[in-house]
Design goal:
Layout lengths: L1 H21 L6 E8 L3 E5 L2 E6 L3 E7 L8 E6 L5 E7 L7 E7 L2 E7 L11 H4 L8
Antiparallel strand pairs: 1-4, 1-8, 2-3, 2-5, 5-6, 7-8
């Protein structure tokens, strides 16, 4: 009887911890601005999460559900070239980011801390070239 009470207490405590992790919401997402003429594929821990079109912005791309934490997030162009990568971990006190720039425009991604200098999503301002990018 005491053993089953201890087991029940341990399971209740574990459930509380796990629900607290789920409540972290924003800590388990990354953001990106794709101010380029090419789509960007996002992979988390080697698993494809989605491909985001040119001239798009996403503030909450979920990284959970792909192993981790920590999460290794990689960004690829249509030809498989790596445009950047970042590590996301719930125990990091700050954030981190990555960027890529070419004649096709600029790409910026971040975990936790949104950069102050995001590229504009306006092709008229950016004057990007059409692919292939250099």
């Amino acid at each position: 009887m005491i053993r089953s009470l201890r087991t029940a207490a341990a399971l209740t405590a574990l459930a509380a911890v796990l629900s607290g992790c789920g409540a972290a919401g924003p800590a388990a997402t990354i953001g990106m601005v794709n101010a380029t003429t090419i789509p960007v594929a996002v992979h988390v821990n080697g698993a494809w999460v989605g491909t985001f079109p040119a001239w798009s912005e996403r503030r909450e791309i979920v990284v959970t559900g792909h192993g981790g934490p920590p999460w290794r997030v990689e960004f690829f162009g249509p030809d498989g070239e790596r445009m950047g990568d970042l590590d996301a971990s719930l125990d990091e006190s700050g954030g981190n980011g990555t960027g890529w720039s070419s004649t096709c425009g600029q790409f910026v991604a971040w975990f936790r801390t949104v950069p102050n200098d995001l590229p504009p999503l306006d092709a008229a301002v950016m004057h990007p070239a059409s692919p292939p990018c250099t």
